[in-house]
TrEMBL record:
Catalytic reactions of this protein: 2-deoxy-D-ribose 5-phosphate = D-glyceraldehyde 3-phosphate + acetaldehyde
Organism, scientific name: Massilia oculi
Enzyme Commission code(s) on record: 4.1.2.4
Protein name as annotated: Deoxyribose-phosphate aldolase
Top-level taxon of the source organism: Bacteria
GO molecular function, one term: deoxyribose-phosphate aldolase activity
Organism lineage string: Bacteria, Pseudomonadati, Pseudomonadota, Betaproteobacteria, Burkholderiales
Amino acid sequence: MTQPLDFKRNAGMALDLGLVNGVKVNRNAADRRAASLANRRTVKKEYQAAWLVRAIECIDLTTLGGDDTPGRVERLCMKAMRPLRADLMQALGLETLSTGAVCVYHEMIAPAVRVLNGRLPIAAVSTAFPAGLSSMETKVREIALSVAAGATEIDIVITRQHVLTGNWQALYDEMVAYRQACGEAHVKAILATGDLITLENVAKASMVCMMAGADFIKTSTGKEGVNATIPVSLVMVRAIRDYHELTGFQVGYKPAGGVSSAKAALQYLTVMKEELGNDWLQPHLFRIGASSLLTDIERQLEHYVTGNYSAAHRHAQP
């Protein structure tokens, strides 16, 4: 993934507890805004096709199963580099297309490196994913090993108890250590928002992680009872907007967990466009963590090209 020439990584800032403790969220307003997105008419025809192609470019194509094998990861990587069939590419007038990255466990970095060979970013989940309840020494070492193995992005999980107990200094220090361990690899902070109880906690955790240097903030591991939602996304992207206004740094956003339909992808793209603007509709600032989403997008694009839907089983699974 090529970064824009003027793109600056988030350098972070000193922890400002006054700013963090002053964060407030109007839950009713967030729910109303989310409902307005769900009930409106979506983009249609060639505009929808263009948006769905952009969604593909922003997918972190993911496999995080206990039954993952090198062969499965190799197939995932091949799909990431060629996410649409050749006939659909030709009909849409596309010469090249790929997903934003692939996302795997540490043990699956090696087969991903063999297939991708630097052509796409490799994201590795780390820091005792998904619960994050290992020693700090273990978690930092895990990051270092994944970067050494070839991961160019690290998806870390925060310690949720720091948020639930309001220990913002501990969360900040933890995130700083993760950022330092990542070195040149970009770091995505997974908040596990389904575990954080309130939208106010989500907003405060978002701000603290950005202050500590997170390049992305991400909703979920995909393993919680509740994963990405539109109200949570609104809170997180507005925290990104506030942080950008405060520091000038652009932090990326990644919804993950349960984003499995083209319709849902369009809603998240709409949130990014309306809340943050066109600059954030790029893979270096927006990703969707997904495994089955690509199949539904491919079906929708085939319908646009041919007028017919095909069964999902006819499309190559990632």
